[in-house]
Amino acid sequence: MIILVMNAGSSSLKYQLYNMESEAVLAVGRVERIGMDDSILTHEPTGGIEVNRVSEILDHNEAVRKVIDILTHREHGVMTSISEINAVGHRVVHGGESFKQSTLVTQEVKQEIRRLFDLAPLHNPPAMMGITAVELHLPGVPQVVVFDTAFHQSMPKESFLYPIPMVLYRRHKIRRYGFHGTSHDYVSKQAAKVLGRPLEELKLVTCHIGNGASCAAILHGKTLDTSMGLTPLEGLMMGTRSGDLDPAIVPFTINKEELTLNEVNSMLNKHSGLLAISGISSDMREIVQAMDEGDSHAKLAFDMYTYRLRKYIGAYAAAMDGIDAVIFTAGVGENSWPVRKAVCEKLTFLGIEFDEERNLERSKEARYITKDGSRTSVLVVPTNEELLIARDTFEIVKSS
After folding, report:
1. Catalytic pick among 148, 225, 295, 324
2. Which pLDDT value is given to residue 9?
3. How does it assemble (predicted)?
4. Which of 8, 113, 267, 290 is positioned for an S-S bond with 298, CB 3.0–4.6 A?
5. Residue 156, Cβ density class (10 Å: 0-12 exposed, 13-18 middle, ≥19 buried)
6. Distance between CA atoms of residues 22 and 290, nearest Å
């Protein structure tokens, strides 16, 4: 079965094409700057040469058409006909309480995704554009939606409810949902394989840290708690997002600075985090470089970032009454050895015996960065959300 995996953003569209017989990636690519006259299509067939094309791509319909065209291109394509695509899997950020697992796209499913636009106004609408575009250009091809929030639907009420009037939950479903669920799901399963133990026996803390970042307490294969909440703003300090703060800061800032709600929302989501404290960048690589060159603001940003991450790991170990392993994944987690070092060296009370040499290694494979015999293991596990989406799509379409 040939499956096309799509991840639609407000002005972008990422894709991967899989042959599910071997789970081989046939091609990867992305369309950027959708809606502009200098949109960029980047396409890389496996074993082939990367292709870059600049043209006007006004909307997601045209972006999907361009993707299909390049996949079937005589010179750069990997298929002879679009009829070879058996199914399409979509990443959708917010499934609310309606979707506890991946599901086949139907009219009812589309209506519910639209109803959830208010909970993810920047993410769910583009995903729906991608679904609609596929219906137009690949009529009759089954589609599956895989939700970032679905994996975290196992949280108990004491984890997902906020201590605010219950009427707000009953009327508006204001609660913790969590995000990056596809990644947390994937790396927890991979970690169990590396550890050589059943996932159902393990207590794991998974740390998906990129420009956006979240932790999850995975107890026996299910989410007990996770750091992101109603929106992806809560939790860890991130590239441009504040993470946890006193909610009274919002009305206080509005009053003192005469800001609107939209301006404060923009400040917390786009002008906070590493960028705000360092004053130079939201990119951890640039933060580390500036810190090494003696920049005190970069050092403070780094220390705040790693301190807050350690707090969450410790809190989740307490919540699970123990811990077997910590997993680092995503851009920062997989690539920033200074971040992993700063976090792990001050978690010795958990039984972590950190190995500096292993931490410095670079690999695309899952690996230990603790010493042999460490009571609590620390792993670096490269995430692969697209593969999990492809697997879910394959299983659902095969059984439908």
Report:
1. 148
2. 84
3. Homodimer.
4. 290
5. exposed
6. 44
* Residue matched to tokens 């960029």: 40
Pairing label, strands 87-92, 2-8: parallel
Indicate the SS3 state at residue 185: helix
Beta carbons of 219 and 322 less than 8 angstroms apart: no
State yes or no: is 148 an active-site residue.
Answer: yes
pLDDT in tens, 265-305: 999 999 999 999 999 999 999 999 999 999 999 999 999 99
The tokens describing 185, both together, are 């799901």
Distances (CA, A) of 294 to 287, 297, 299: 11, 9, 8
Instruction: Report CA dihedral (233, 16, 146, 217) to the nearest 10 degrees.
Output: -50
Residue positions in the annotated binding site for substrate? 91
State the Cα–Cα distance between residues 372 and 8, nearest whole angstrom: 42
Residue 88 in tokens: 């399409």
> Residue 147: what residue type?
F
Query: Which distant-in-sequence residues (6+ apart) come within 8 Å of 399 by Cβ?
Result: none
Q: Is the sign of the CA dihedral 383, 387, 389, 392 positive or negative?
A: negative
- Of 399, 390, 397, 392, whose CA–CA distance to 101 is shortest? 392
